[in-house]
Amino acid sequence: MTLRIGTSGIPRSSARPGTDHGIRRARELGLQCLEMAWVNGIKMGDEAADRIARAARENDLALTAHAPYYINLCGAADVVRRSLERLLTTGRLAARCGAESFCFHAGFYQALEPAEARRRVQRALRGLTARLRDEGIAIDVRPELTGKPSQLGSLEELLDWSAEVAGVRPCVDFSHQYARTGGRVNRYEDFMEMLDAIAGRLGPGSLQRLHVHVSGIEYGPLGERRHLPLRRSRFRYRELLRALRDRGISGWVVCESPEMEDDALHLLRVYRRLR
Ligand SMILES: [Zn+2]
Fold first, then answer.
1. Fewest beta carbons within 10 Å, which of 87, 91, 166, 219?
2. Which of the four pLDDT bands, split at 50, 70 and 90, describes residue 231?
3. How far is the CA of 212 from the centre of ligand 1 (A)?
4. What is the pTM of this model?
5. What's the gap in Å between 274 CA and the centre of ligand 1?
6. Residue 167: per-residue pLDDT
7. Where are the domains of the chain?
8. 3-274 under CATH 3.20.20.150, yes or no
9. Rg of the chain in Å (alpha carbons)
10. Rounded to the nearest whole angstrom, what is the distance from the C-alpha of residue 39 to the centroid of ligand 1?
11. Distance from residue 170's CA to the centre of ligand 1 (Å)
12. How far apart are CA 82 and CA 80, in angstroms?
């Protein structure tokens, strides 16, 4: 594997809507991967998924997916059940599209003791990965490092779940880590420390298949406020790219900036100049 850089969602400059057209446009631009942003729900049939798979194969574009936002794996029983259904649908369709990984936000602590919330999420992840395995669906299940301390998804939680549940791996959103720590995690050394923590817990192979999110970001006392263009934020993406280079990271770097392909291409250029 190599490190691939691309957008979240189809490029804005895509002449026609539809992920298959977005894939062709991403390829024309020189991008290397695309995250299907199903954050507001999934409205896709098997035929569309097959078209996407064909376009991705023909254009050598790697795909990942982002599950809908409405997920809470430690909420009330019916909320968890519906969340698992959404995640199963995401996993099935994403795999049919040829994606190798999908990410999601695991849930909110709300009134739960953090340890209890973590246990519930872990139990749900066990059920989800077992279902996918039973159906013969091979795709990484990736809870995401989230941008607010009120959300589950600290790096430690991701590493615990990944170590405990086969099929689960972390989606490492470095901008969210920066936001949830009030801007403290923002230097080359901090990013290296995170990468070393991942490799230390999950083995060096985990860095050869890493799902990464990057964006400019604004934060406040409660963490993430909104995503920003890379160059309008203090997040030090250049230092992150240097850390990714120095640790020889492979996988997918998904740029979640509102500037879409402009910022994804910027990341790609900066990364190439490092090498
Ligand atoms: Zn996300």
1. 166
2. very high
3. 10
4. 0.97
5. 27
6. 98
7. 3-274
8. yes
9. 17
10. 8
11. 12
12. 5
